[in-house]
Write a structure and sequence with these properties.
The complex is a heterodimer.
Chain A (H helix, E strand, L loop, with lengths): L1 H38 L10 H12 L7 H32 L7 H16 L2 H12 L3 H25 L3 H9 L4 H35 L7 H10 L3 H30 L9
Chain B lengths: L2 E3 L11 E3 L4 E10 L2 E11 L4 E5 L6 H8 L7 E6 L2 E2 L9 E4 L11 H6 L8 H6 L4 H13 L15 H15 L3 E5 L7 H18 L2 E5 L3 H7 L2 E6 L2 E7 L14
Parallel strand pairs in B: 5-10, 5-11, 8-9, 9-10
Antiparallel strand pairs in B: 1-2, 3-4, 3-6, 6-7, 11-12
Helix pairs in contact in B: 4-5, 5-6
Classes of the chains: A mainly alpha, B alpha/beta.
C-alpha cells in the first residue's frame, strides 16, 4: 500500500506543478529578459552615429573591387579543404567517444568521463582553438584543421550520443538477449539504426565548419578569413565585401546541397503543409 | 532423473523430449522496476518443449516478468533459473531467444540481415566488425524465410513490411537461432485471425523441430489456452490462477514410441 500512497502523492504534486508551473515559468522568462536588458544597459544604446557609419561603409564598399575575385576563390578553396578534412577527422574520432557516452549502451562510470571529455572540447569555440593552435604550431591551414577537428569532436559527439540514446531500445535488448556481444550490438543494431541521422549531422557539421573555417582565418589559421582580415587591416572594404559575398554564396550552395543529400537518405521531408 | 514426454495431440506433434532439469524454474521470484515490485512471490516451472502463456490485464506485469527472464531486468527477490543459470547471470549465448512486443527488429536493415541476427553468437570479432556472415548461415536464413513464407523478401527493408510479415521475420530469426527457450511478448496482438494462425503454425513447427520451450505473453485467454500447455493468469501482484490446457501433453513412457 505504501507504494500506492507514494505514487498518488507524487502524481498530485506533478498535477500541481503543471497547473502553477507554466504561468510561473512565463513570468520567470519575462523577468529575466528585463533584468538582462537593464544590466546590459541596452535601453540606453546610442544609435545616433549609426546612420553616418552606414553611409561611410556603403561609400567605402560600393562599388566592390572585383579584382580580388581570384584571391577570394583561392582562399575559399583552402577554407573548403580545411572544413572537409576537419569535419571528416572530427566525425570519425567522435564516433567511439559518443558511443561510450550513450547511457543506454554503457554504464555511468564510462559515460560520465566520455561526456566530460566532449564537453571540454566544446568549451572553446573553434576560433579560440585556432588561436591556441596558431600559438602552438604557427599560422597556416594546419592550425585551422586541428581547431575544426577538435571542435567537431565535441559538438557532433554530443549530437551523436543524443541520437544513440533516442534509438528504440527494444532491438538493442532483443539482439543482445539473443547472445550478441556489445560490439555486435553496436555494429549490427546501433549503427544501422543511427546511420541516417549520422549522415545528416555530418552534412550539418560540414556546413557549420565552412562558415567557421572562413572565420578562423582571421586569427591566422588559413583560408579566406586570412585575406578578409588582411583587407580589413588596410580598410579596403570594397575588397572585403567581395570576399564576404563569396562566403555567403558558398554557404547557400552547401545548405541546398546538404538538404538534397539528407532528403536522399531520410526520404522526402516535405509534408502536406509545406507544399 | 530422466523421463520422456510427448506433446499435444491437438497440434499433431510426435516429438520425444528427454526431460532433464526444466529450462525455467522460479521460486519466490519478485519482479519490477526500480525496487518497486509489480509481481511478487512467483513460483512456476516451464518444462522441456512445453509452452506457458502469461495472461492478465495491461500493466499487471507480464512484460516485466518476461524481461526479467530474458535478463534485461534484474530480479528483485527470490530465485530464478533459466537454462541452468541463476538470474541475473545470462545463459550461454544463443540459447535464449527473446521477441519483444515491438519485435526488436532493426527497421532500416534488410529482412535477411535481421534473420541473420539469430546467428550473431557464432560470429567472431573480425567478422562482426566487417559485418560478414558465413555462407551456411545465409543459406539457413534463406531457408528459414522460405518456411515462414517470406521468400523473395530477403533484400526488402523491414520497415517496408506489414505487421504480420514483420512478426514472421522475428520467427525466422528464432528458426535460425534455434534457442532452447523462446520468450515472446504479444506475438499475436493486432493481427487478423488468418495471419495469427499462420504465425502460430510457424511457432509450432519451430517448437516441434527443436523441442524448445516457449513462454508467450498473450492478451486473449482463449488464444492462450489454445496455444499453450499451461496458462498463468497474472494479477493482484502475483499468479491469480493456473489453467492446465486440455491440449497439454501427458508424460508417457519412452517405450510407447518404440
Amino acid at each position: 500500500m505504501s507504494n500506492v500512497d507514494r505514487t498518488t502523492s507524487a502524481a498530485s504534486f506533478r498535477t500541481h506543478l503543471k497547473t502553477f508551473g507554466r504561468p510561473l515559468l512565463f513570468i520567470l522568462v519575462f523577468v529575466l529578459a528585463v533584468w538582462s536588458i537593464w544590466i546590459l544597459e541596452l535601453h540606453q544604446t546610442d544609435f545616433s552615429g549609426g546612420a553616418d557609419g552606414l553611409t561611410f561603409l556603403y561609400g567605402a564598399a560600393i562599388p566592390p573591387e572585383m579584382s580580388v575575385l581570384e584571391v577570394g576563390l583561392r582562399g575559399l578553396l583552402e577554407t573548403l579543404y580545411i572544413a572537409y578534412v576537419g569535419t571528416l577527422f572530427g566525425v570519425l574520432l567522435s564516433l567511439p567517444v559518443s558511443l561510450v557516452a550513450s547511457r543506454n549502451l554503457f554504464p555511468w562510470y564510462l559515460t560520465l568521463p566520455a561526456r566530460w571529455f566532449l564537453a571540454m572540447l566544446r568549451v572553446l569555440p573553434s576560433i579560440l582553438w585556432a588561436v591556441i593552435f596558431v600559438i602552438l604550431i604557427g599560422t597556416g591551414p594546419a592550425a585551422g584543421v586541428f581547431a575544426i577537428t577538435l571542435y567537431t569532436i565535441g559538438f557532433i559527439g554530443k549530437l551523436e550520443y543524443e541520437a544513440f540514446e533516442g534509438l528504440d531500445n527494444e532491438p538493442i535488448e532483443a539482439v543482445s538477449s539473443l547472445g550478441a556481444t556489445r560490439l555486435q550490438v553496436l555494429r549490427f543494431v546501433v549503427l544501422p539504426q543511427a546511420i541516417n541521422s549520422l549522415i545528416s549531422q555530418t552534412m550539418f557539421m560540414f556546413e557549420y565548419n565552412v562558415r567557421h573555417a572562413a572565420a578562423i582565418g582571421i586569427v591566422g589559421a588559413g583560408g579566406i578569413g586570412y585575406y578578409i582580415m588582411g583587407y580589413l587591416d588596410f580598410l579596403q572594404y570594397d575588397r572585403v565585401v567581395v570576399l564576404l559575398a563569396i562566403v555567403f554564396l558558398t554557404v547557400l550552395v552547401i545548405d541546398e546541397f546538404s538538404y538534397r543529400l539528407r532528403s536522399f537518405f531520410l526520404g522526402d521531408m516535405s509534408t502536406s503543409i509545406s507544399k | 532423473m530422466t523421463s520422456v514426454s510427448t506433446c499435444k495431440p491437438k497440434r499433431c506433434c510426435e516429438i520425444t523430449v528427454t526431460r532433464s532439469s526444466p529450462p525455467i524454474r522460479c521460486r519466490g521470484l519478485s519482479v519490477g522496476y526500480n525496487e518497486d515490485p509489480v509481481l511478487e512471490n512467483l513460483s512456476f516451472t516451464v518444462g522441456n518443449g512445453s509452452t506457458v502463456a502469461l495472461v492478465g490485464r495491461s500493466g499487471c506485469g507480464k512484460t516485466t516478468l518476461l524481461k526479467t527472464l530474458a535478463g534485461i531486468l534484474d530480479p528483485l527477490d527470490g530465485e530464478a533459473t533459466v537454462l541452468s543459470t541463476s538470474l541475473p547471470q545470462s545463459p550461454s549465448p544463443g540459447e535464449l531467444g527473446y521477441i519483444p512486443q515491438s519485435l526488436g527488429l532493426v527497421m532500416h536493415e534488410t529482412v535477411l540481415t535481421n534473420v541473420l541476427h539469430g546467428r550473431l553468437s557464432d560470429l567472431g570479432r573480425m567478422r562482426s566488425l566487417l559485418g560478414r556472415f558465413p555462407a551456411d548461415a545465409k543459406t539457413d536464413a534463406r531457408e528459414a524465410l522460405e518456411r515462414v513464407g517470406l521468400d523473395g523478401y530477403e533484400q526488402s527493408r523491414v520497415k517496408e513490411l506489414s505487421g504480420g510479415q514483420r512478426r514472421r521475420v522475428a520467427i525466422a530469426r528464432a528458426f535460425v537461432q534455434e534457442p532452447r527457450v523462446l520468450l515472446a511478448d504479444e506475438m499475436l496482438s493486432e493481427l487478423d485471425g488468418e495471419t495469427a494462425q499462420s504465425i502460430v503454425d510457424c511457432l509450432i513447427t519451430l517448437q516441434q523441430e527443436t523441442g524448445m520451450s516457449v513462454v508467450i505473453v498473450e492478451h486473449n485467454l482463449e488464444m492462450a489456452k489454445d496455444i499453450s500447455d499451461t496458462v498463468l493468469r497474472l494479477g493482484a501482484g502475483g499468479i491469480e490462477d493456473r489453467i492446465e490446457s486440455e491440449s497439454a501433453c501427458e508424460p508417457v513412457p519412452r517405450q510407447s514410441h518404440e
